[in-house]
Amino acid sequence: MDTPLTFSALVLALSGQLVQEIHDRVSQQGFHDLRPVHGFAFARISSGGATTADLAEHLGVTKQAAAQLVAELVGKGYVLRRAHPHDARARLLELTDDGRAATRAADQAAREAVAPWREELGEKRFGELVADLTRLAPRGPVRPSW
Amino acid sequence: MDTPLTFSALVLALSGQLVQEIHDRVSQQGFHDLRPVHGFAFARISSGGATTADLAEHLGVTKQAAAQLVAELVGKGYVLRRAHPHDARARLLELTDDGRAATRAADQAAREAVAPWREELGEKRFGELVADLTRLAPRGPVRPSW
DNA sequence: TCCATATAGACAAGCAAGCTGTCTATATAT
DNA sequence: ATATATAGACAGCTTGCTTGTCTATATGGA
């Protein structure tokens, strides 16, 4: 660690590689119209009870940006907007069958992308790595940030 | 690791936090006109012998994008373009005094941003973390990638 | 020496993904 | 009842890249 910037570059490169690999694998599964951010949107939507505003907060973007993203996903058939049971202003987001399939593909892709790391480090070290990251990572929106 | 996507989100969140913190500290030092990517540009330029094309490769962007970034940094007084000793087409990039000051500020900011991590994990675990990341990280351009 | 091909960088136009600002309808609290 | 806050839509703009094209210079082979 002669130059601490190198450490940042390392973490950055790693996350970039991870995102890229997952995206590539998802594309290979036939989902050519999805971008990495969609995976994180799916994750939030599939957890249930999400509105566009919730999604905006989860992704760390404005409501307008989230609304645009949702419109895109609706147009591509991955997401539905349903009436909200208790709030006539809001719309509940829900995955379609295609949306769930894409979510499974992303999950599988992530598993495959991480697998060589587990192998390279060994289960023990990998477990420690995950533990360390969990301790260090902030609770915040999922976002690439520059 | 019930859902491997969580791991990606973790790494992503971590790198995002890191970049953000460094950027905030650099801003606080008075460099309000710099973005995170500039730090990585400075790092490459200060290592010497960089042309715009070299910078493009280092950052993983097109030559045009790099040229635009260089023009911006020249305009702000952080970088100089000098004649290349052996190639009349090329221009050697060089940091000004301000550029070097910004580079030092970024380095210091990175050190400070990482310091609480070292403390949280302890030197031993932190060292292992760095070692693991070094093994896993690709040699590639520095880039946020989505 | 000449020519073909590659490279450095500038100029122009286009585009994707975010932003701010504004609006309506609905909810909530005083 | 009334004031304030929130969900989401619509419009227009900015930013940070992209592709495409051009000139000047370098380089390697006939």
UniProtKB/TrEMBL annotation, chains A, B:
<feature type="domain" description="HTH marR-type">
    <location>
        <begin position="1"/>
        <end position="138"/>
    </location>
</feature>
<dbReference type="GO" id="GO:0006950">
    <property type="term" value="P:response to stress"/>
</dbReference>
<dbReference type="Pfam" id="PF12802">
    <property type="entry name" value="MarR_2"/>
</dbReference>
<dbReference type="InterPro" id="IPR000835">
    <property type="entry name" value="HTH_MarR-typ"/>
</dbReference>
<dbReference type="InterPro" id="IPR039422">
    <property type="entry name" value="MarR/SlyA-like"/>
</dbReference>
<dbReference type="GO" id="GO:0003700">
    <property type="term" value="F:DNA-binding transcription factor activity"/>
</dbReference>
<dbReference type="InterPro" id="IPR036388">
    <property type="entry name" value="WH-like_DNA-bd_sf"/>
</dbReference>
<protein>
    <submittedName>
        <fullName>MarR family transcriptional regulator</fullName>
    </submittedName>
</protein>
<dbReference type="InterPro" id="IPR036390">
    <property type="entry name" value="WH_DNA-bd_sf"/>
</dbReference>
